[in-house]
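Bit of a strange request maybe. I'm writing a small parser for structure token strings and I need a real example to test against, not something I typed by hand. Could someone generate the tokens for this chain?
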Amino acid sequence: MKKLISIFIVIFFAISVKSYAQETDYSQYPGFVDFGNLEQFENSEESTEVLINENLLKMVSKMGRNMDVNGKKDSSLANMIGGLKLIKVNVFGIDSTKTKSVFKLINQINKKLMKKGWDRLVRQKSKDERTNVFIKTDNNSVIQGLVVTAVDTSEATFVNIVGKIDLEKIGELSSNFNIPNLNDVMGKKKSKTDVNTDSDSTKH
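Reply from user aminoacidic:
Good idea to test on real output. This should exercise your parser:
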């Protein structure tokens, strides 16, 4: 998360985020997800919250038209960033005693997403770990939102990206902004054997 924070720290200090935040109700977008009160699970030692709204994303897009992607200049990533509405990331340490409670929250989120028509791309499940990746598409199969939830015995991660998303660019988005748990989304999507670690279907 250090790279992500360093990229945006100048913008956050130079511009009043509060003045931007009140402009848009992001809950109106179909790709937005309310994770609820995550602070109840956080320990006091480690917690990171990043909220990059539409205005800041447009600024980054304009400044990064020639973003470096795998050693090459690529404007398509900047174009995608310009079409996003919101990037919301919460990463926090948890006590091992709270792992089951976070598992329960993730199960509730999964059920809510599937009920609202989200598709699950990735599901990894073991005794001490959970990882889920969901996408929300419209009637034209355009991706409008992406959600990642991941937890182990020491850390939990919740990511919500709202807006028009190109899955082929997700790995590049992660590499440039260090958004956790996105690097291998496409690889796992293409390999069904890697997606399922239990007998449940990834489809609703």
